[in-house]
Amino acid sequence: MDNLIIKKGQTKVIFDNGSLENCTFDVEENAALTYVFILSGGVKRTEILVRLLGKSSSSSVFGIFYGEKKDEFQIVIRTIHKASDSSGQTFVKGILDGESKCIFLGLVDIEKSASGSCDILRQDTLLLSSQSRVESLPHMEIKANNAIAKHSVTSSGLSDEQILYLQMRGIDPKTSRKLMIEGFLLEILNKLPKQLRKNIICPLR
Question: What is the torsional sign of CA 151, 184, 20, 194?
């Protein structure tokens, strides 16, 4: 497991295209981490641990996964708040087709020493096949006073109404599907640093 330290006052942006299967990030005082990962193809497991060790430290973890055929993913993301006024966010979007599957575990732990801290955990999945499956398991432990933590999990298929609307406007089914997939990803893409957006290419069209 790789262990990376984001030192005091440092801002670090990391893009991972599947090379870091397991990684721990230690974020010191007034330091900020932005970590973006992409998963696609095969049977894969990734485990990310973020420890917010210093006062006013922050982390943003963004992830996108694409599954098709019989791909299987297991994603574990844990954020531990150990210092006051720390902030974290985890936002993961996935697209599954064929018989692909994903298990997502999102864990947030705000310890007693992390008063005034906050965290947001969100995971959305677009299911393109009736045989694709996702299981999302958020878990939060808040031990500090004055701390805030929220989570949201959704899964849905392509909207028949939206597809019909696009086709009525002269857009063929293949292009309609492509536009809806791009629309699903747009929100998370807009949150990424601009220099990373060009690296996000969806293979499911």
Answer: negative
What CA–CA distance (Å, rounded) separates 102 from 68? Answer: 11
Residues 59 and 94: their CA atoms lie apart, in Å, by 20
pTM attached to this predicted model: 0.90
5-16 pLDDT, tens digit each: 999 999 999 988
What band does 2 get if pLDDT is binned at 50, 70 and 90? Answer: confident
**C-alpha atoms less than 13 angstroms from C-alpha of 187 in its C-beta half-sphere:** 10
Taking only the tens place, the pLDDT of each residue in 76-113 is: 999 999 999 999 999 999 999 999 999 999 999 999 99
- CA separation for the pair 174, 181 (Å, rounded): 11
Half-sphere exposure of 113 (CA within 13 A, CB side): 10
* Count of all residues that appear for the chain in the document: 205
Rounded CA gap, 138 and 142, in Å?
13
Q: For the chain, give me the number of helices (H) and strands (E)? A: 3, 12
- Which of these, 37, 32, 40, 64, lies nearest to 48 by C-alpha position? 37
